[in-house]
């Protein structure tokens, strides 16, 4: 009995350390590959805990191997947007400018009832109040309300007669890599981008950590730290 207790305690400590090293995310915020690793770690920890005939190291080594895989995947996903899209997928726009994208619902196998439930969970009971609904890669729903339905902020008080429709922000540069496709879709070219960077005393794209075009079409950029 004491052996089982000690083994369970040791495995518990190993799993806690591994989960802490994986990062501070709730289960609902995990990407699919992270959730799979979590399930596998739980299974690997349970087997030697139940069977004292299995050496403890046989459970610890696979758990550490899974941690290494998770760290590597997270690193490559951080450095490469294409790799992140491959392993995590892309956010899906289910409502675009107030209209439901039926083909996207069919592709994701999301019913209209599922969509309505997700909107209600975000306190939007009418689809007509929603400008954009985006299904994130972790399964969460993000909502951009129509201009006349969004909460009032201080900046709105001085422009009540000039409320503009919301647009989605556009990510242009991530970790020194320019997304040419998104730049063209936004209606700009590289000359315009370089001009915007020079205004912020940035000489080249490789020096940019993150740059995006906000929903009100204002360019923001943050330089990399050495």
UniProtKB/TrEMBL annotation:
Domain of life the protein comes from: Bacteria
Domain YetF C-terminal: 79-211
Keywords (A to Z) from UniProt: Membrane, Transmembrane, Transmembrane helix
Transmembrane regions: 6-23, 60-78
Keyword match Transmembrane helix: yes
Pfam families in the cross-refs: DUF421
Keyword Transmembrane helix appears in the UniProt entry: yes
Record protein name field: DUF421 domain-containing protein
Record organism: Alkaliphilus flagellatus
């Amino acid at each position: 009995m004491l052996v089982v207790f000690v083994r369970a305690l040791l495995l518990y400590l190993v799993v806690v350390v591994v989960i802490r090293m994986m990062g501070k995310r709730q289960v609902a915020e995990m990407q699919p590959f992270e959730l799979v690793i979590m399930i596998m770690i739980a299974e690997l920890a349970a087997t030697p805990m139940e069977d004292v005939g299995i050496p403890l190291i046989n459970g610890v080594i696979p758990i550490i191997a899974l941690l290494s895989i998770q760290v590597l995947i997270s690193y490559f996903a951080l450095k490469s947007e294409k790799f992140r899209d491959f392993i995590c997928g892309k956010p899906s726009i289910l409502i675009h400018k107030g209209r439901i994208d039926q083909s996207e619902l069919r592709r994701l196998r999301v019913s209209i009832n599922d969509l309505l439930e997700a909107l209600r969970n975000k306190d939007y009971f009418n689809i007509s109040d929603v400008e954009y609904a985006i299904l994130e890669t972790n399964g969460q729903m993000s909502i951009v309300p129509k201009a006349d339905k969004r909460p009032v902020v201080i900046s709105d008080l001085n422009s009540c007669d000039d409320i503009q429709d919301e647009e989605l922000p556009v990510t242009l540069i991530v970790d020194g890599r320019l997304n040419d496709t998104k730049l063209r879709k936004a209606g700009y070219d590289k000359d315009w981008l370089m001009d915007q960077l020079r205004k912020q005393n940035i000489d080249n794209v490789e020096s940019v950590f993150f740059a995006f075009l906000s929903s009100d079409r204002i360019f923001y950029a943050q330089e990399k730290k050495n």
